[in-house]
Amino acid sequence: MDRSNTPRGPMTTAIHAGEAPDPATGASAPPIHMSSSFVSDDISGFSAHDIQDHSPYSYARWANPTTDMLERKIAALQGTDACICLASGMAAATAIFLTFLSAGDHVLVSDVSYVGVAELARDTLPRMGVEASFVNMSDLDAVAAALRPNTRLVHTETPVNPILRLTDLAAVSKMAHEVGALVSCDSTFLSPLGMDTNALGVDLVMHSITKYICGHGDAVGGAVAGRADLIRQIRIEAGIHHGGILSPFNAWLIARGASTLPLRVRAHCDGALALAQWLESHPKVIHVTYPGLVSHPQYNLAQRQMTYGSGMLTFQVGDAATGQSLARQMIDRLEIIHYAVSLGHHRSLIFWMETQGLMDTSFRLSGAAAESYRAFAGDGVFRLSVGLEDPSDLMTDLDRALV
Ligand SMILES: *Cc1c(COP(=O)(O)O)cnc(C)c1O
User: Fold this and answer.
1) How confident is the model at residue 51, as a pLDDT?
2) Best exposed site among 96, 229, 334, 380 by fewest CB in 10 Å?
3) Angle, nearest 10°, between helix axes 248-258 and 65-78?
């Protein structure tokens, strides 16, 4: 175990936090503990409420040493007391909503968010008696007007999927805390290294660890990081009772990926900036959105709040029909970039996201909210997750399809 209290840099933290040589064998690499049960030398209770911080391992739905290792690593990278890992990013989002919201409560959710979260908040929460309202979180006046005395949670996502609009987290957190609401932020697009969420006042940081934290596109998982008392509540509710725990095998894979996170995000960002600049001057491209470009409408906020621009960018080529036919061309012609959903992998991934389709199925926006969406996305965007390949090869590949 990491016994030192000396502050360490992010690369050392990513490699060593949560890990220790195996005391039984001296193995330098962490073992995978595939055990569901743990032999007990104590007669203890069998309720989720019997769980203590230093309870011995008993059953893997409570805790497992391999999953613990990953939880400690993510907490250390995020700079929080604690973290819980769950079966997917969606399990993490559901855990936040169902742990902290009850019938009669109000939740404020970003009007654009990961589509699964958007649909969960619009369709499932009202069935549970939770009132959800949706607001453009980049409009602070709209946020102020939407908060209520019974608002228990404000759920943000920044940069938001898929349009890369940003939320001023310090300002939103201040307003939310004034009415006694918790603030959660889906920080999947930035990973734990992209923002100082403690300084920004975020109470619960969620990640789809399927993305940058794993980094290799071979395991699905989710995480929520925050204060120990909040994470303990999630562990009881979502882990032990709802049961959507992460398997130790996936925890091991994702921890292995997390060890190189600081190096990888740097390369993802360097590649994304190079591609964004190249696309901005490409004759077939009419607009590029990337928080690290001066042309991003919230560039100043990006500079203030984010430590880097992320590995995600979007670009537009024209109306929906033009986008659609170019998507077809990409499927046929791309040799390196995979035409596929998801993000944060070492392989580059691209996907066409048509605006009207998303409006009809997931976001259901109208008026000023729909206008703000279109200001960032037009009739649709190509969302590019820039991988770790040589940027010059990615440019050659895109050029093959952008004809
Ligand atoms: C992928 C993603 C999720 C959902 O995560 P899964 O691991 O696929 O369940 C949530 N939020 C964002 C921003 C994502 O990109």
Assistant:
1) 75
2) 229
3) 30
Q: Is 213 in the pocket of ligand 1 (CB under 6 A)?
A: no
CATH number reported for the structural domain that contains residue 273 in this entry: 3.90.1150.10
Distance in Å, CA 155 to ligand 1 centroid: 14
Instruction: List the domain range (segments joined by +) for residue 373.
Output: 261-401
The neighbour count for residue 40, using CB atoms within 10 Å, is 11
pTM of the full predicted structure? 0.96
In a domain, 271, yes or no: yes
Nearest CA to ligand 1 atom 4: 89
- pLDDT, residue 4, reads 58
The per-residue pLDDT for range 224-263, each reduced to its tens digit, is 999 999 999 999 999 999 999 999 999 999 999 999 999 9
Pocket test for ligand 1, best of 114, 185, 190 (most atoms within 8 A of CB): 114
Pocket test for ligand 1, best of 208, 246, 253, 310 (most atoms within 8 A of CB): 208
Phi, psi of 157 (to 5 degrees): -150, 125
Would residue 5 count as lying in a domain?
no
pLDDT digits over 356-400, tens only? Answer: 999 999 999 999 999 999 999 999 999 999 999 999 999 999 999
Among candidate residues 223, 258, 293, the one where a domain is terminated = 258
Beta carbon of 210 within 6 Å of any ligand 1 atom: yes
**Which residues, listed in sequence order, are joined to residue 199 by a DSSP beta bridge?**
none
Question: Which residue CA neighbors atom 6 of ligand 1 most closely?
Answer: 89
